[in-house]
Write a structure and sequence with these properties.
Layout (H helix, E strand, L loop, with lengths): L13 H11 L4 H8 L6 H7 L11 E9 L2 E8 L5 H13 L5 E4 L3 E9 L4 H10 L1 H11 L1 H5 L3 E10 L10 E9 L6 H19 L2 E8 L6 E8 L11 H17 L1 H21 L4 H11 L10 E5 L5 E8 L8 H4 L1 H9 L5 H23 L4 H16 L6 H12 L4 H14 L1
Helix pairs in contact: 2-13, 4-14, 6-8, 9-10, 9-14, 10-11, 10-14, 15-16, 16-17
This protein binds (R)-mevalonate.
(R)-mevalonate binds next to helix 10 and helix 14.
Length: 431
């Protein structure tokens, strides 16, 4: 099994990290070329992906290490500009792996397409007419995108809702058809949109109404992934804080997020700090995942915490995260962007369901990392220690000077490039 425990990775040069990963993960030659390339996404390819292209926009790509998920090791590619995120995820993953790692599961991958119908002469008769023709409608949907049925998926269910029935306004009463589609390993936007557009004429005929919107819903509540972890308090111990104190602090912090949207938004942002970088690195649509995740956090009628933290019967800290995961491992940018292909390779070319589970496990780890820091030293201490390294490098420090300058910056509580340059000059003069 390929391990995700790579001691000393952090202190290697970028070049050595690349060599290590290429070897350890036995990456194919093409992927190794991308890994070492200065322009993996060629401008010509970018020009075919979107409009008015003037260049590409690289982000740092790091590896979240130490992840043990359902007893399988994962080095997790994370594309993100924010310092501390990758380090914090890897740190918590290391703690969690000593407690058996993360356990995850996923529902079926059913995505939803919506068809809005207005002006039906009789809403209930229209609803019934659609339900009566369910089998035929599913056939029409599948005929519009035959390749998904060939892959073992396709349209498999349908529902009808009436919205604003008692409203007086002619604009608000509507019928909404939900088409349920198993999109297999695809995110499914194209599949669903093609299907609901194909259904519209039949739906108009059956209902006597007019169809307006025909579009995928990003509220993918039939495509969920769930991660849990259970961590004994002694593994949470940190300088000046007992494990029990940290555990109880995390639960208090969760309760705060569960009760207050001002806190919940920041708490959840911290969770998405772990998820978005993987969504981006694998070429998925992070706006779709973000929109679905936040809506799911409000499913009980108020916006709250995406995670839950509690103490179990053994006194362990138990965490859980369940989210809709509208992502894919085939189609779209996942196969066009060379770095996305590389990221999927490093992850062992998972199915969409497996990838979704990795994402929620990292989201849960990220949340614990933030809460553990917040209930102990605060986040600035660790953040500044890491940030000081980038500042030292920006000032021109290399090799062992990076840590010497970084440490000095933290001691002086002046983490800025100008100060790092002064320290460097001072060190050179002393030598
Ligand atoms: C910063 O990017 C994320 C945190 O604010 C998350 C949190 O407060 O839980 C640290």
């Amino acid at each position: 099994m390929k391990t995700s425990r790579i001691p000393g990775f952090y202190n290697m040069t970028v070049e050595d990290r690349r060599k290590t990963i290429a070897k350890l993960y036995a990456l194919p030659e093409e992927q190794v070329d991308y890994l070492f390339s200065t322009e993996p996404l060629k401008t010509g390819t970018a020009d075919k992906m979107i409009e008015n292209v003037i260049g590409t926009f690289p982000l740092p790509l790091g590896l979240g290490l130490n992840f043990l998920i359902n007893d399988k090791d994962y080095a997790v590619p994370m594309a993100i500009e924010e310092a501390s995120v990758v380090a914090s995820a890897s740190y918590i993953a290391k703690i969690a792996r000593s407690a058996g790692g993360f356990k995850t599961e996923a529902t079926e991958r059913i995505m939803i397409g919506q068809i809005q119908v207005v002006g039906c002469p009789d809403m209930h008769a229209a609803k019934q007419a659609i339900l009566n023709e369910k089998a035929e409608l599913l056939e029409v949907a599948n005929a519009a995108y035959p390749s998904i049925a060939a892959r073992g998926g396709g349209a498999e269910g349908l529902d009808v809702r009436i919205l604003n029935e008692s409203s007086e306004s002619t604009f608000s009463q509507m019928l909404v058809v939900h088409l349920y589609v198993d999109t297999c390993d695809a995110m499914g936007a194209n599949i669903i949109n093609t299907m609901v557009e194909a259904l519209a004429p039949t739906v108009e005929k059956l209902t006597g109404g007019k169809v307006y919107l025909r579009i995928l819903s990003n509220y993918a509540d039939r495509c969920l992934a769930r991660a849990t972890c259970s961590i004994p308090p002694h593994l949470l111990e940190s300088e000046g804080f007992s494990g029990e104190e940290v555990r109880d602090g995390v639960i208090q912090a969760y309760q705060f997020a569960a009760s207050d949207p001002y806190r919940a938004v920041t708490h959840n942002k911290g969770i998405m700090n772990g998820i978005d970088p993987i969504v981006i690195a694998t070429g998925n649509d992070w706006r779709a995942v973000e929109a679905g995740a936040h809506a799911y956090a409000a499913r009980n009628g108020h916006y709250g915490s995406m995670t839950t933290w509690s103490v179990d019967e053994k006194g362990n800290l138990r965490g859980e995260l369940e989210l809709p995961m509208s992502i894919g491992t085939v189609g779209g940018a996942t196969r066009v962007h060379p770095m996305a292909k590389l990221a999927l390779d490093i992850l062992g070319n998972p199915s969409a369901s497996e990838l979704a589970q990795v994402m929620v496990a990292v989201g849960l780890a990220q949340n614990l990392g933030a809460l553990k820091a917040l209930v102990t030293d605060g986040i600035q201490k660790g953040h500044m220690a890491l940030h000081s390294r980038s500042v030292a490098i920006a000032a021109g420090a290399t090799g062992e000077m990076i840590d010497i300058v970084a440490e000095k910056l933290v001691q002086l509580k002046e983490v800025r490039v100008g100060k790092a340059e002064e320290i460097l000059v001072g060190c050179k003069n002393d030598c």
